[in-house]
Structure to design on (663 residues):
């Protein structure tokens, strides 16, 4: 065992990278659920984002365009969920599961000619002076822009939900769609927009895996991160900052446990392997001891005639 | 009356027609642990499936289900395949062992083939490849090429198949480089590109300049390429898209001849329970082209070792070898027997850390 082999600066820098896909997908799903919709298709939208972002980046050579395409791809796929649940009034759980299966299959088809292709590097922030600072430089000032965008998005979602009229309407729709409807708000329209926002965020998260974290295209490469994002939203009690905390905890402990294993720490590996899940759940459950609960209309179907 | 006769005739014709089809075509099912596009383990099994189709054309029908989790859910998939009329089912991951045995009991007429396991039944065969022979060649190249003397190893699950690989690679790396140290990380997954990439990155950050993987995706290759100056080896498949650097060679599993032979046996009615474990010699394990990044003399030594293993003059587990705890395992010149290898649950002397139990 040699703990000195673990470089804390590199550790923190890489945990931020590991947490970002989860963070993006979870904050999108948080908005969707705040609007009263349960979309279990996060995994499917992520993997579509992963291949859209990858393919477009390879074709255009621009990661910016790639990430844009990933967000668009995720949002377009979420329209299928919109069609099923908001227009045809189908069951949200079944539709979400179907969306995941469909996304996994479609992405495999789309990605066939991209296996083994190396994407262009995602540019990293490099501020002369700041990025070169010891400790603080690598942790705070030398990531790619999407990582900062993810953190900014958390802040933005928090502020919008808490302080703005838009946020209030969104929450009203999620808490009691009949009352919101009676007040004259377009419940379906608001939900459609929320679902598309969720799709775009999931798409970004997926592309972050295929362009930054791995970087390559492999079928099924999201490997369950969408499901963890869904769980994270619940354990974070639908609060944006707790999503950030949960994602960093999960990403952090994932990377830390690999570091501990490589350094040969004498903790049984099984405990290390399960630790990201256990610790994230524990911390968030303890935090959610207050009275925060799910949006009251979550998962319920709305029809104006009811 | 006429109407019922008509119906009965139609039913009979239909019945005969379907029976006719069932007799004509041998249906072969494949259960995969990852997606067919993983570029590694499952990709090679699916190449084997395609080879069966190419060989027998209209005489066979193949079906596969990908990304089937190990455990109870796989039982459902196998049962469905058997109910759909499969004559032969290949279950291609270690964790399908007990499910395969359970389902096989319910369908005594269906033949099952389980990869990398050790439990057989009258209608269940097991087959595997001697990957450790390839690991020996890898270990040799890795030991010669590492500059930091730290070799990172990404394990999937602590099962004999993986432990054999670690031991074999370590013995041969140590032989050519006494200062070599192995850092082993267990990913507890066969396929999770993000986690595999994280594991590779962590090992590189801790000084490894050679990454060996026993997981299925090409993600560690991508991570190594990103880091630069790190070498890797293709696992299960050639992964040649990452050659000449970081991928300097590979272990390729070639299942096609076996799948064709077993399908043929079912067609001819000569199928019998078997326990197949083939290596470099019979061609089930192949060593991918050693790239120019490897110095010529190292390449020649590696090829010589490959030839010696192939013709049987060298066994990768040849004594004197001790276990990790210092107790004797193999005496001078003694080679390991297949039983010990198949159930290997210990590290050899020099490896650090414990095998998770």
């Amino acid at each position: 065992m040699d703990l000195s082999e673990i470089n804390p600066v590199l550790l923190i820098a890489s945990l931020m990278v590991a947490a970002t896909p989860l963070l993006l997908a979870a904050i999108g799903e948080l908005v969707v659920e705040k609007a009263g919709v349960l979309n279990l298709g996060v995994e499917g939208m992520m993997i579509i984002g992963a291949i859209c972002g990858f393919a477009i980046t390879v074709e255009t050579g621009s990661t910016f365009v790639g990430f844009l395409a990933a967000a668009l791809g995720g949002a377009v796929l979420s329209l299928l969920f919109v069609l099923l649940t908001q227009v045809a009034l189908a069951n949200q759980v079944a539709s979400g599961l179907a969306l995941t299966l469909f996304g996994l299959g479609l992405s495999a088809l789309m990605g066939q000619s991209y296996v083994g292709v190396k994407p262009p590097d995602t540019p990293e922030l490099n501020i002369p002076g700041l990025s070169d600072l010891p400790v603080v430089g690598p942790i705070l000032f030398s990531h790619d822009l999407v990582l900062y965008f993810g953190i900014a998005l958390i802040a933005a979602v928090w502020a919008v939900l808490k302080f703005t009229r838009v946020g209030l309407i969104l929450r009203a729709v999620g808490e009691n769609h009949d009352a919101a409807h009676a007040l004259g708000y377009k419940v379906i329209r608001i939900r459609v927009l929320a679902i598309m926002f969720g799709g775009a965020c999931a798409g970004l998260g997926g592309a972050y895996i295929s362009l930054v974290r791995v970087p390559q295209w492999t079928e099924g490469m999201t490997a369950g991160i969408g499901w963890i994002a869904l769980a994270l939203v619940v354990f974070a009690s639908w609060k944006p900052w707790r999503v950030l905390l949960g994602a960093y905890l999960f990403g952090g402990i994932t990377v830390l446990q690999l570091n501990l294993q490589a350094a040969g720490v004498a903790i049984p590996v099984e405990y290390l392997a399960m630790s990201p899940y256990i610790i994230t759940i524990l911390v968030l459950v303890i935090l959610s001891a207050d009275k925060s609960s799910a949006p009251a209309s979550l998962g319920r179907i709305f029809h104006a005639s009811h | 009356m006429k109407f019922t006769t008509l119906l009965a005739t139609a039913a009979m014709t239909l019945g005969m027609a379907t029976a006719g089809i069932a007799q004509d075509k041998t249906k072969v099912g494949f259960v995969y642990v990852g997606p067919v596009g993983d570029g590694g383990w499952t990709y090679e099994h699916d190449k084997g499936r395609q080879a069966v189709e190419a060989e027998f054309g209209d005489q066979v029908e193949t079906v596969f289900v990908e990304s089937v989790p190990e455990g109870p859910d796989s039982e459902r998939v196998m049962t469905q395949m058997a109910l759909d009329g499969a004559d032969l089912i290949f279950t291609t991951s270690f964790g399908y062992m007990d499910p395969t045995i359970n389902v096989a009991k319910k369908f005594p007429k269906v033949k099952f083939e389980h990869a990398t396991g050790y439990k057989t039944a009258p209608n269940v065969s097991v087959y595997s490849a001697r990957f450790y022979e390839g690991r020996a060649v890898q270990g040799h190249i890795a030991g010669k090429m590492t500059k930091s003397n730290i070799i990172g190893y990404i394990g999937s699950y602590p099962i004999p198949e993986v432990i054999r690989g670690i031991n074999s690679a370590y013995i041969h790396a140590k032989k050519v480089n006494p200062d070599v140290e192995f850092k082993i990380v267990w990913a507890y997954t066969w396929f999770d590109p993000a986690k595999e990439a994280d594991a590779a990155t962590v090992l590189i950050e801790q000084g490894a300049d050679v990454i060996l993987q026993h997981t299925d995706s090409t993600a560690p290759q991508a991570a190594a390429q990103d880091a630069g100056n790190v070498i890797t080896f293709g696992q299960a498949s050639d992964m040649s898209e990452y050659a000449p650097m970081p991928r300097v060679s590979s272990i390729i599993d070639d299942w096609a001849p076996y799948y064709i032979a077993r399908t043929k046996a079912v067609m001819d009615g000569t199928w019998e329970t078997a326990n197949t474990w083939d290596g470099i010699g019979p061609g089930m394990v192949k060593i991918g082209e050693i790239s120019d990044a490897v110095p010529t003399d190292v390449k020649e030594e590696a090829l010589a070792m490959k030839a010696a293993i192939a013709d049987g003059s060298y066994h990768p587990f040849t004594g004197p070898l001790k276990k990790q705890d210092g107790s004797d395992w193999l005496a001078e010149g003694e080679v390991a027997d297949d039983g010990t290898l198949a159930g290997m649950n210990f590290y050899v002397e020099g490896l650090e850390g414990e095998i998770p139990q």
